[in-house]
Amino acid sequence: MKLLLLSFAAVASAQIPQSFVALIQPLLSALNATEDNRLNPFTSQILDTFIEPLETQLERNSYVYREGAQLMLDGAPWTASGANVYWLGLDENVIPPAGQPFYAPFNASYPTLGRITEVMNVLQTMGAHTIRSQTLGVSVGNPLSVMPALGVYNEQAFNTIDWAVFQARQHGIRIMAPLIDNYDYYHGGKFDFLRFRGINITSSDSSKLDPLVLQFYTNATIVNDFKDYIAHLLLHVNQYTGLTYAEDPTIFAYETGNELGGPLFGDEYVPVEWTTEIASFIKQLAPQKLVVDGTYGVNKTHLPIEQIDIFSDHYYPPNNTKLMDDIALVQSVNKTYLVGEYDWTANNPQASSLQSFYGIIEGRQNTSEPVVVGDLFWSLFEHDVPNCNIFVNHTDGYELQYGNPLNTVQNNTQISLIRQHFFKMQGVTVDSYLPAVACPGNTAEYTYL
Questions:
Q1: Which long-range contacts link 152-156 to residues 24+ away (Cβ below 8 Å)?
Q2: Tens digit of pLDDT for each residue in 252-284?
Q3: pLDDT digits (tens, 9 = 90+) for 113-153
Q4: CB contact set of 17 (below 8 Å; sequence gap of 6+)
Q5: Cβ atoms within 10 A of the Cβ of 406, count?
Q6: Which are the contacts of 313, defined by CB distance < 8 A and separation ≥ 6?
Q7: pTM score, two decimals?
Q8: Is 1 helix (H, G, I), strand (E, B) or coil?
Q9: Residue 165 and residue 159: Cα distance in Å, rounded?
Q10: Residue (of 308, 152, 142) closest to 225 by Cα position
Q11: What is the DSSP secondary structure assignment for residue 392, as one 8-state letter?
């Protein structure tokens, strides 16, 4: 009991809310009134060991918020650099053992809890603050989805999402999740909502689509279907935290979608009315959440939307001129900008160097209006845990596999540069060394329980 009281005393000496100090004051008085010669003196160094974990938990339970053109946490500037890990809720890259849930037409399966835990360990080692993950927000249209069919919910699908959110919290990492996808991918997207209402359109990344695709934004019935899905997702109670996703500060932002547009790829054709309605609905359910405009590019007509906190774009390849233009555009409305995806590989000769691209982002952190608050590379994969002998591969050419012995010198040079950048965004300087991260094997599911 006395050790517990001493830990409260240590907290009282830290910079925490005065309401919390007032709450524990009676306990401190009880401690001062006791005499016990068997207690060893508590030096300031020992008291620090009580303070640190409590301070950390308080920070992890605090919301990231926006003040003009920068993000803040506990009164200090906060940055959102990290990785895209799109498969955390539902995967398409691993065929599970016989008997495990698997939907062959989409090659869809739930990732093991160990795979999720390992990427958290890796990102923590890399100095990352943030994960962006489509499948923590988009999960519709197949039997393993959160919503396999309109109005039908599959609670089993929340198991991996709950674990990912919990593990991110335990590792001090924040999450940003798109709520819908522009494409007809395995995890679902706007085409599923159209099909639910009898509008069957074939998806394509490049060709012009039937204008009926705009019904996703303009058809009131479909918009309400989407809002019902958002409500079910955000009001779900995480089995590991007891918090709804709307309440949990770990999820610092929801994105209205991934690379949203209209009939033509990259046309930024997303109605202001739809973006305003969806962003307002997110804020209604989760007032402390930040909202990211999910349009593919910075749509100038969206800049005045009050409920949008962060604008974003994707860089294939990195382009310094485009980055600076986007920052200037968002600065004009005193909001924030995030590089939502980018090619980290240096394989494209037309790309701006990663070092110069990062230099622009880092340089802005020393100004009174940073505007650009971070960047998220595409995309992270690690071992097929519990099998620590195999790295999971993806087919788009952008997978980053930290610690893979088959990495080329160029791969590891780029990964080292990313790690140095992530730490620099926190005001910390590290060298080019890449510390090893152990594969957790069969013990991963017991990490941070």
A1: 153/232, 156/101
A2: 999 999 999 999 999 999 999 999 999 999 999
A3: 999 999 999 999 999 999 999 999 999 999 999 999 999 99
A4: none
A5: 7
A6: 296, 297, 298, 322, 326, 339, 340
A7: 0.91
A8: coil
A9: 10
A10: 152
A11: -
